[in-house]
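Suppose you are handed a protein chain with no further information: no name, no annotation, nothing but its sequence. What can you learn? This example shows the usual starting point.
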Amino acid sequence: MIKTINLQKIFKTEEVETWALNNVSVEVKEGEFVAIMGPSGCGKSTLLNILGLLDNPTGGEYYLNGKEVSKYTESQRTNLRKGVIGFVFQSFNLIDELNVYENIELPLLYMGIPASERRQRVEKAMERMAITHRSKHFPQQLSGGQQQRVAIARAVVANPKLILADEPTGNLDSKNGKEVMGLLSELNKEGTTIVMVTHSQHDAGFADRVINLFDGQVVTEVTI
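A reasonable first move is to predict its three-dimensional structure. Written in structure tokens, the prediction is:
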């Protein structure tokens, strides 16, 4: 599903050139659960942004479902993301002015899904995440655990084949963190491919494989 060959990302200022990714080659097969670990500033989130088509690499190749996508324009990347990739972020990234139902519905609006189908999909996603009773509430009325459930519901509502999670339990207490990891694990068992950036050894234990980055390079890969 995912394959990168000698992926590079260089950030330049007038005086400094920083290699965030230095010839990173990774492969993720369909249905895998892969954790990416490493110290802060090692390139984990940069790699996830490129895998999620939020950014292009400076050099190297990126194949998503067999297509070489590293030179895609922003509009091409946006079109390819729709319905294929779901995102879960540490900070939830919910829209404060929209209630739970509307936040979850948002990806379907972008995809042009008809209203009746949108309603069915949103209701199913809310039921799955046990947040139906919160459908009319706004993000600021929810606990951190509930907000992350909304974020996961939004990520899965379009039935993506790939979920990218960036520190999904980073802002949660241990109880809510375990619940969120259980939900991601369930999705993976049903066939969704998951790539997760994490600092947590506990969370990484849910993965099939752990890729360790250091200074923008893959230093180890461990199958669990």
